[in-house]
């Protein structure tokens, strides 16, 4: 099985969905979740992962704040190096960002390119960034949704693997809409993880003749692969 590491910062419902998928014998999953890493020590997702019996590691970004010339900032490269080392220590081969609210530097992205995927609560390239659900409400769109994509250094910009639409109702609040989006993410994200872990389904183009670097290639057998 491919060893999957999950990074999270919050409530961890996507992490739970990924773990449940891999553990359901009916799915004959090619993936196995070997570690959950959180940058927030008391995130709800941390307690959930422990309850599921999954090894948990905390890499607190606040420990990487350095003060230079009176200005404090997180040394993001040093932090990402620590994340890499932690994932490596657990033998991780594929990384899933499940509500992970840190921006990844090249130290992380270059190591995991083609092997790291993220779920985003909007139909990219619309509504990039950390408040995508509110942005959809503010734009008064009637359809938004979720996207699972490969991770590149540019935020929310990597090759798209799967997307699914979610209707926006006129009386939706941020929380009602986000809950409906999350319910869809919980089936979409495991499917994308599975497609990446199978190795023969989807990959990032590395051959410049088959598309620009970062573009997604589907194998012939999976070209019509869609979530149901
Ligand atoms: C999910 O909706 C995910 O798409 C979003 O945070 C939520 C995490 O929920 N991620 C982002 O906004 C990343 N920019 P969860 O912690 O319950 O899985």
Could you name the key traits of this structure?
single chain; 228 residues; alpha/beta; seven-stranded mixed β-sheet; two-stranded antiparallel sheet; 32% helix; binds glycinamide ribonucleotide; Trifunctional purine biosynthetic protein adenosine-3
Describe the SSE topology.
Blueprint: E1 2-8, H1 13-23, E2 31-38, H2 44-51, E3 56-58, E4 65-68, E5 71-74, H3 76-89, E6 94-97, H4 106-112, E7 116-120, H5 132-138, E8 143-150, E9 160-167, H6 174-198, E10 202-204, E11 216-218
Parallel strand pairs: 1-2, 1-6, 2-3, 6-7
Antiparallel strand pairs: 4-5, 7-8, 8-9, 10-11
Helix pairs in contact: 1-6, 3-4
The structure holds glycinamide ribonucleotide.
Span of the ends, CA to CA: 24 Å
Portion of residues in helices? 25-40%
The main pleated sheet reads as:
7 strands, mixed
The chain-level mean pLDDT equals 94
**Using only CA atoms, what is the Rg?**
17 Å
What is the count of β-strands? 11
Helix and strand run: EHEHEEEHEHEHEEHEE
**Small ligands present:** glycinamide ribonucleotide
Tally of helical segments: 6
* Beta-strand fraction estimate: 25-35%
Low-pLDDT sequence parts:
none
């Amino acid at each position: 099985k491919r060893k999957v590491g999950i990074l999270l910062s919050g409530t961890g419902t996507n992490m739970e969905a990924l773990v449940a998928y891999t553990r359901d014998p009916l799915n004959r999953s090619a993936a196995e979740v070997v570690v959950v890493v959180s940058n927030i020590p008391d995130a709800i997702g941390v307690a959930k992962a422990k309850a599921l019996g999954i090894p948990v590691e905390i890499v607190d970004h606040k420990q990487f704040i350095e003060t230079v010339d009176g200005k404090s900032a997180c040394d993001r490269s040093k932090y990402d190096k620590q994340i890499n080392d932690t994932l490596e220590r657990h033998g991780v081969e594929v990384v899933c960002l499940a509500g992970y609210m840190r921006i990844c530097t090249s130290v992380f992205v270059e190591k995991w390119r083609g092997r790291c995927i993220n779920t985003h609560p909007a139909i990219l390239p619309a509504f990039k960034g950390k408040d995508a659900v509110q942005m959809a409400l503010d734009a008064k769109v009637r359809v938004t949704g979720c996207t699972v994509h490969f991770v590149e250094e540019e935020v929310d910009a990597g090759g798209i693997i799967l997307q699914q639409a979610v209707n926006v109702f006129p009386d939706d609040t941020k929380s009602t809409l986000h809950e409906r989006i999350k319910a869809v993410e919980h089936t979409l994200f495991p499917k994308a993880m599975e497609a990446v872990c199978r190795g023969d389904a989807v990959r990032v183009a590395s051959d410049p003749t088959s598309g620009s670097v970062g573009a997604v290639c589907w194998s012939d057998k999976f070209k019509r692969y869609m979530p149901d």
